[in-house]
Amino acid sequence: MNVFVTGASGWIGSATVDELLKAGHKVIGLARSDVSAASLEKKGAMVLRGDLDDLDSLRRGATEADAVVHLANKHDWANPAESDRAERAAVETLAEALVGTNRPFVVANGISGLVQGRPVEETDPSPAVGPGSNRGGAENLALDYVGRGVRTIITRFAPTVHGTGDWGFINFLMSAARKQGVSGYIGDGSNTWSAVHRSDAARLIRLGLEKAPAGSRLHAIAEEAITTREIAEIIGYSLNIPVVSIAPEDANAHFGFVGRFLKLSMTGYSERTRELLAWTPSGPTIMEDILAGAYKEAGQQ
Prior knowledge:
By secondary structure, the protein is of the alpha/beta class. About 40% of the residues lie in helices and about 20% in strands.
């Protein structure tokens, strides 16, 4: 298939491009910079210049492709409303271009915030509905197009998609530990996170693209529940620094913006996903990655 990928040079997107090319697919990657374009071309992918606000480029990429993988997101923490607006507009533009084609349309989301007080299951619908909700309600918007001849496949990612080069949550926790001289967890550290290695997430995207039926919700989750205290202990061991409890009211000052996420349990299940696609995660665990030095550069700049 000719696969149009947004976010093609990003953390998950770059691994997905590698996975698709390795499986024999052709890739057209959306690139907003010369550096991103050169990286994609070096891999053997084609390039379409543009970004999430360039709706004409999104429309062209979707129209000319056999499948679409939408991974890009502005992630504007200072202006989340703008990120939500852009996400909804992008998903609507891509989906409209695919109406009546029955082509696969993979749309990324996260498991965090979908349900409260228990792990998220694939059968759980997203509560985000409408333009003013999280991600602009893009998951539900994309699923609305199933009845209009689009093979929408939602892929929900664990809160940490880890590996060498990760700039996400674990990177920030490692950086905070180096800065503070201690590896911290909040309260008793019983809050739990799910995790998945980047290579396993990329393989799931490819399998979903190839096999998942319209309306599927896939969970890119390898490890279902790791306590934040366990994560702190491994970080402390790897840096040879003390491991301490941080009071909830001090979390933001100690960890930075990631402190508000460390206060939460963000977990989910993936049994249905594994059965549906015969997906068996095989990458390193988050603990193995930390101990192997995947985050040795975090906080060193």
